[in-house]
Design a protein that fits this description.
The chain has about 140 residues and is mainly α. Helices cover about 80% and strands about 0% of the residues. The longest helix has 30 residues. The radius of gyration is 16 Å and the shape is globular. The two termini are about 15 Å apart.
Amino acid sequence: MGTLARQFVWFTLAGLAGLAVDAGLFMLLTRASLWSIAPARAVSVCGMVFVTWILNRAITFAAHRSPRRGAEFVRYAAVQASGLVVNLGVFALCLWLLPSLRQTPLVPLVAGAAAGFAFNFVVTRTLVFRGAGPRR
């Protein structure tokens, strides 16, 4: 398996692990600790970003991580936030261009998620993990 394919698979697996952390923390905080939705979601998303950064740094892009962890994490968090904007933008654009999709909003939701994921993979690969190692 080539480098790009391997990175894509590991990036996907890290994302799934992040989703598990996000959902688990969210459920724990809202069900067991009785937090309200907004603060619970803020904490769970932060947990997800941290876990996916650790996994992507350790496995997916290990050969390209930066020795400046703090700066790398800030870039990673900014990319994740930008990916969310792409996700929501594609979702809204789908609903605006095809109002009939309001009847099946799962379709634009998946389109937005796919666009955000693709954006995050490409930008993470090119701008976040650009440290030492052979260029891809």
